[in-house]
Amino acid sequence: MKNLIVNIAAVGLLVLGPAVAQAAEGYSTANVNMRAGPSTRYPAVAVIPAGSSVEIRGCLSNVNWCDVEFYGGRGWVSGQYVQAVYEQRRVYVGPEYYRPLGIPLVTFSVGNYWDRYYRHRDFYRERDRWSRGPDYYYRNRDRDYYYRDRDRDYRDRDYRAREYRDRDRDWRDDDRREEVRRPERRETDTNFRDLPQFRGGKADTYNRPDPRASPFVCRPGDPKCD
């Protein structure tokens, strides 16, 4: 029985050994964003403070980005911000140190990676667009913003055109009302030049009768006006 337990433990170590070796301890050299993909254009998921310890789970072969674990969260950090201990000295993580440090080469897929770690994140709703790459995502997002701003400008222009049209219509209505009122004033207003004391002369600036004009106003039935 004792030998059986020992054999099981040995088999367990053999099974777990490669899994344990699939990670290396690293340290961040600056306050760096841990991102949802191997590019600065992917969303940031956390900030790793300078000097913090991280577990390097794997790195890409074509670009110097590594999949790291920090306080239970997963994300990607550029190798130029991560150091590891190699031969009793710290070195920046790069392709030449992947094998000596036991860092495996991995690949990145938005679908698999995000399904595993980011289902609760807001940006996960746009996973299908991000799966085509950050360049595609930003290019189409900028295009959408362009059309949105253009449509908003069109709406504002149409609104201003309606304002001008309504203003001109109000002015035309005011002019028509003024034309209607003008004959009424001509019928009711008395022209001071038609008064007898102004006939044959001009009034001064104080609207006093010209001395050459008649000094009084004739009233109907007044014998002086006969």
TrEMBL record:
Keywords from the named record: Signal
Pfam family, one: SH3_3
Signal peptide: 1-23
Biased composition (Basic and acidic residues): 175-192, 201-211
Domain of life, per lineage: Bacteria
Region (Disordered): 175-226
Record carries keyword Oxidoreductase: no
InterPro entries per record: SH3-like_bac-type (IPR003646)
SMART domains: SH3b
PROSITE patterns: SH3B (PS51781)
Domain SH3b: 23-86
Protein name in the entry: SH3 domain-containing protein
Biological source species: Rhizobium lentis
